[in-house]
Amino acid sequence: MNDPRREMKEALAGVLPGVGLEPGDAHPSPDELAAYHDGELPPAEAARLQDHLLLCESCTELLLDLEALRGDPGFGGQRPAPAAEIEAVLRGLRAQAARSAPRPRERPRPGREIQWLRALAASLLVAVGGLSLWVASLRGTVGDFSRPQLNAPILDLSPGGARSEDAHPTVLRLPRRLQIFTLVLNPASPQSFPGYTVEIEREGGGVVWSGGGLEKNAFGSFSLALPRVLVPDGAYTIRLFGHPEGRMRGEPLGEYHLKIETL
Amino acid sequence: MNTPTVRSHLADRAAAALEIVAEIQSGSASEESFRRLLGLYYQPVHHFFAKRGFSEEDCLDLTQETFLGIYTGVQAFRGESGFDTWLFRIATNVYRKRWRWGSAEKRTGAQVPLAGSDEAAPGEVIPVSPLPAPAEDALGRERSRILRDEIERLPDQMRRCLALRVYRDLKYREIGVVMKLSTETVKAHLFQARRRLQEALGEYFGDYFGAAFGDHFEVAVRGSTEETDS
User: Fold this and answer.
1) Residues B192, B165: Cα–Cα separation, whole Å
2) Burial bucket for residue A161 (CB in 10 Å: 0-12, 13-18, 19+)
3) Of B113, B123, B125, residue with least CA distance to B51
4) CA distance to partner chain A, nearest, from residue B215 (Å)
5) Per-residue pLDDT averaged across B134-146, rounded?
6) Are B20 and B95 found together in one domain?
7) Which of A148, A254, B90, B182 is the right S-S partner for A240, CB 3.0 to 4.6 Å?
8) What is the pTM of this model?
């Protein structure tokens, strides 16, 4: 004996494919359901939503609840809400209100974009200030070099001791405003070489400068004009080398110890 | 179905809710205002979750979350859709959020549903094979085909009403809500559907459709206008 209701269900499922299955498309939003209920959807939208309702038990239930909420005073029962449960909800609301209330001592923080712009502005200000000072300093230096260096000292140096630690440095005291002075290096040996180099090393600070192009003058010595900015106050060792033809490595011609001080 | 008294009661409730919301929006509301709102709507909201199978503890939690949603979103409420509809939206969103969360938790959990279990989770439809029942013999297959063909000949609205009635066991009034039809129209559609099927297939099926449509339908066929399936 067939079960008529079951047989009917199966026949309906064959006619309306998808009936009883989870609908594939997304569920309508509560707003759409409410609009459908109120007859506010365009016909095509309403038809699409009705198709969905035919398949979706969950959305049908929601629609029926909306109907009941609006039209059935018995939805949820007629008895009053339990006081304890109302108090529990109110406690939650109080906590929420406390969380969302502005904190009195807390100043509103600027947005991330504002903070970033402020940082950029501050950096630019510092950079502009630094550049201004540097330009002013350069101007002063250029101005000093543009004037004659009056009474620029010339210091005649002879090679020091064989060992650096034994040598007593020659002290050179220079006026504060002086920008340049000249050293005369007398080699330990009169031997001539095709090329000469010199190296200036600051005590404890590495090589300040080294280079070639020196030429022995008529007196058998070498002159070296040094700007003060290159050799500020401190102790220095200057080494002179002669380079034989085709050799990179030079032969020491003299080592000079010098101490510079500002008057 | 709604008497003037019922309509008046619902209108009063909605008006009171709008009054309270206006107080909250203007900043003049006290805790007492919210207490009144809870008094009006706590039970419907709680019932909304309870009928979806949540535990009592979860119902309390979800109800609280819904009222928190009202509290936090009240400034955005413009009253265009009515308080009840707005409340429904918030409760539905809370429900769907919890349902998604619950689904995700189930997916990551170790529990595996028993094969063949026909227990539906909230919002889930129990899959039923859309194929005709396995016919034991050629006669059975023929019956199914004839029935399907005849249902297919029914007008679309009639067929949909029939599906909601037979498949979902919805009441006439509920079918009306879904189909945007009056209860009387739904009854008429179902009456016509049964009559057509009976006329076309009575020779083969006998007094088959009374049982297929359900006992309640019998009353409608006999001309009763009462909602007998409430």
Assistant:
1) 14
2) exposed
3) B123
4) 11
5) 69
6) yes
7) A254
8) 0.55
For testing the chain A interface, which of B38, B88, B154, B198 should be mutated: the one with the most A CBs within 10 Å?
A: B88
Say if A40 is an interface residue toward chain B (CB within 8 Å). no
Q: Does B127 score more than 60 pLDDT?
A: no
Closest Cα in chain B, distance from residue A108 (Å)? 21
Interface confidence (ipTM) of the complex: 0.73
Q: Is residue B228 part of a domain?
A: no
A residues 7-26 near B, CB within 8 Å?
Answer: 7-22
**Domain that includes residue B56, residue range:** 4-108
CATH code at position B185: 1.10.10.10
**DSSP string covering A74-118:** TTT-SSPPPHHHHHHHHHHHHHHHHHHSPPTTPPPPPPHHHHHHH
Confidence check: pLDDT of B85 > 80: yes
Query: Distance (Å) from the C-alpha of residue B223 to the closest C-alpha of chain A?
Result: 22
Same domain, B79 and B19: yes
For B148-194, how does the pLDDT look when each residue is reduced to its tens digit (9 = 90+)? 888 889 998 999 998 888 888 899 999 999 999 999 999 999 989 88
What average pLDDT does the structure give for chain B? 76
Do B100 and B174 fall within a single domain?
no
**Residue B127 located in a structural domain:** no
The proportion of chain B whose per-residue pLDDT surpasses 70, expressed as a percent, equals 69
- All structural domains of chain A: 11-74 (no CATH), 154-262 (2.60.40.3350)
Tell me which of A238 and A175 has the higher pLDDT.
A238
Cα distance between residue A235 and residue A160, in whole Å: 14
